[in-house]
Amino acid sequence: MLNRTVLAATLSALSLVSLPVLADDASDLKKLRAEVDALRKAYESRVGELESRLKQAETKQAATPAATAAATPAAAPASADKAARQSGDTAFNPAVSLILSGTYANLQKDPEGYRIKGFVPGGEIGPGSRGFSLGESELGLSANVDRLFYGQANIALSSENEVGVEEAFIQTTSLPAGLKLKAGRYFSGIGYLNEQHAHTWDFVDAPLAYQAFLGGQFGQDGVQLKWLAPSNTFIELGAEAGRGSNFPGSDRSRNSSGAQSLFGHVGGDIGASHSWRAGLAWLRANPSAREHSDIDLAGSEVTNTFSGSSRLWVADFIWKWAPNGDARRTSFKLQGEYFRRKEVGELVYDKDGTASADRYRSQQSGAYAQAVWQFLPAWRTGYRYDWLDSGKVDYTGNSSNLANPDYKPRKHSVMVDWSPSEFSRVRLQFANDRSRENQPDRQVFLQYQMSLGAHGAHGF
Fold this sequence. Notes:
Layout: H1 2-17, H2 19-22, H3 26-71, H4 76-92, E1 95-107, E2 131-134, E3 137-144, E4 149-157, E5 163-172, E6 179-187, H5 208-214, E7 219-228, E8 234-242, E9 259-270, E10 274-285, E11 290-295, E12 301-321, E13 331-349, E14 356-376, E15 379-394, E16 410-421, E17 424-434, E18 441-453
Antiparallel strand pairs: 1-2, 1-3, 1-18, 3-4, 4-5, 5-6, 6-7, 7-8, 8-9, 9-10, 10-12, 11-12, 12-13, 13-14, 14-15, 15-16, 16-17, 17-18
């Protein structure tokens, strides 16, 4: 009502001010006053209509909760409490993501007999199953716990209907001086690929070096401390200590740490189009009675055990190019890692039969190099070359039972993939795998990977 009064007064004032101007023309003055009156009436009519609609809406809103409460009186307090808490609860709900993956594999050699000649097998290695198979699906949950901690869990659902905890850790968010502490189960920060989930890899499978030296990927239960330097150049240092039950370690059932690692990474930008990162890492594991299958000189399959120390050094480098830093249309990536491992301890040959124990020493190495080119906005192609050197292996007294390996496994892989969005990818890969001596395995993979829900950004 106040606005209506103000408008009326304003219009009246305007009409009075206009009188001297139009005094000489009584006809025009009368016409103007008529228009002002018409405008005032139209305005009052519109305001009245809006006030009526507002009153009806308020009446309807007040009646709805009353009717609901009368119909279900017992539920009304719970509903009101839920509504009061809804906004607060939503802020703490974890982000949920699901990665779906599937593969068709055409393998020339039977994957059941897969071995990397001259290397102790461990973990999940090999090309997988022939034909169609459901890949490993990954369910992820992550959120800030409070102002001090962040939590994340990744549940792996295998094609064999097995459920495993891939990662489950807490991480600090507010430590001073660039420090960050992680505790729980996590992928180690050694190397470049190890810390990444498989759905972010550029090829269907892990490089041979990862399979031979880390059993595919090294994760453990423990603690990790990282320090990020306050500088324009990216400098990151890290240390880890954990249970070390995964290959190259083993479950020792002791209170002390079974595996420790140190790593450092440096990187930066060169102009607007180039970026790089390089790193060095060291991993020490202390396996106890770590079992592995082997073929002795008589051609029999035996089970051996190793106890001692395993030391692994890793050097990694990656260089990326995108015009002016924009990788939406075209980009290029060059990546490589070098591994060198030394193991010293005691080997028990044929633990269930002969059980011959003697000193063991080995020194082996391997690497891979790959290049990936994005030639169209949704299309990429890449090539990877893997090589291993079985190096020097000394079985001492067991040399009469086990052959000293003298073979250098190799593998060539070529892929092309199509990603219509950041949430979906279809990949075709061809490989010539010479992990087994005199048994080249020609492999063809067709893979899909789909991401549902909220998924955090990937690292560099």
